[in-house]
Write a structure and sequence with these properties.
This protein has 312 residues and is of the alpha/beta class. Helix content is 31%, strand content 14%. The chain has 2 domains: 156 residues, 3-Layer(aba) Sandwich (Rossmann fold); 120 residues, Glycogen Phosphorylase B (Rossmann fold).
Length: 312
């Protein structure tokens, strides 16, 4: 599928780059931080790499390389720039590997690449720059058999590699979209096992709408979006964000916005809400970073509090 690459060369390179090393070169003009593609991992891990890169290289251009929906979590950070790279999580192997030529071309300009075990490089396997400029955090093996969390392991690796021992996760969503007292996401990452049996979600929305203005994340498409739209119709709420058209309403204080789009993302709404219910780890992590109360998702709390750096 990629005839210019040889399996043995890739294996030999991987064995070299997986070894952590300290940055000792000249300050780069560009630092490229690769997205892990999944939203929760970009909150917990990739954002730490962005934080460390900004502090280690204060005069460099810091690039977030990844899908547009992930970029929405950091779009308000003035230090960051974006290189959009689409990646189909549900595609076949050939489709996933097809991103490599464009990614390699995008990273052709001089700079340092920080790869936090990204799917874009197939977890570090595909070369995207000169080896001496590539810093790979092998999150699946770093720390061996210790008990540290991935957040703590990422922080330790960034300290060893770039001399920033206290990096912290953060989000910086754009201040757009309608204000909300309550934001709700029932996203389950296409895993029905994460859902609570019906009619839990609809009843939760009905209860939430009786207590404040609600913004419902419609998700990224498919069955998840269809379910959200059915809830909107069932509750007869006002539909916002992308079309701003009114439906017949039974609950005057409830609203719905499209999720995971430029104009209808959940992320800009989190800072304004006072209560959040989320199923997926991505929204849970973002809710934690935004601060404030959270509701239970299935049998566990949906996220642990993580501090936001005073300066992004």
């Amino acid at each position: 599928m990629l005839p210019e690459l040889r399996a043995q060369d890739l294996l030999d390179r991987y064995r070299r780059v997986r070894q952590a090393r300290r940055f000792a070169g000249k300050a780069p003009k560009n630092v490229f931080v690769l997205s892990r593609v999944t939203l929760g991992a970009d909150v917990a891990i990739t954002s730490q790499a962005l934080d460390a890169a900004k502090r280690a290289f204060p005069h460099a251009a810091i690039w977030f390389v990844g899908p547009p929906k992930n970029w929405e979590m950091f779009a308000a950070d003035p230090r960051l720039r974006h290189i959009p790279v689409a990646y189909g999580r549900d595609g076949l192997l050939q489709a996933r590997l097809a991103v490599w030529p464009a990614l390699r071309d995008a990273l052709a300009q001089p700079g340092v690449v920080i790869d936090p075990d990204s799917r874009l490089t197939q977890l570090g396997l595909l070369p995207v720059c000169e080896e001496e400029n590539y810093y790979f955090f092998e999150s699946r093996a770093y720390g061996e058999y210790g008990h540290e969390s991935l957040v703590a392991l990422t922080r330790r690796w960034l300290g060893e590699s770039f001399g920033v021992p206290d990096s912290r996760p953060y989000i910086a969503p754009s201040a757009q979209g309608p204000a909300a007292e309550i934001t709700v996401s029932f996203g389950a990452g296409d895993n029905p096992a994460k859902r609570v049996a019906d009619p839990f979600e609809l009843e939760m929305l009905r209860l939430a709408a009786s207590r404040g203005r609600v913004l419902l994340d419609e998700g990224a498409g498919g069955e998840e979006t269809e379910r959200a739209q059915q809830y909107v119709q069932a509750l007869g709420v006002e539909r916002g964000a992308e079309r701003s058209r009114r439906l017949r309403r039974r609950s005057p204080r409830a609203a719905c916005t499209s999720g995971m789009t430029r104009r209808g993302s959940t992320w800009p709404l989190l800072a304004a809400r006072r209560w959040c219910r989320c199923s997926a780890a991505s929204r849970a992590s973002a809710c934690s970073l935004a601060g404030g109360p959270r509701a239970r998702g299935r049998s566990k709390w949906c996220g642990r509090p993580m501090p936001i750096p005073a300066r992004c």
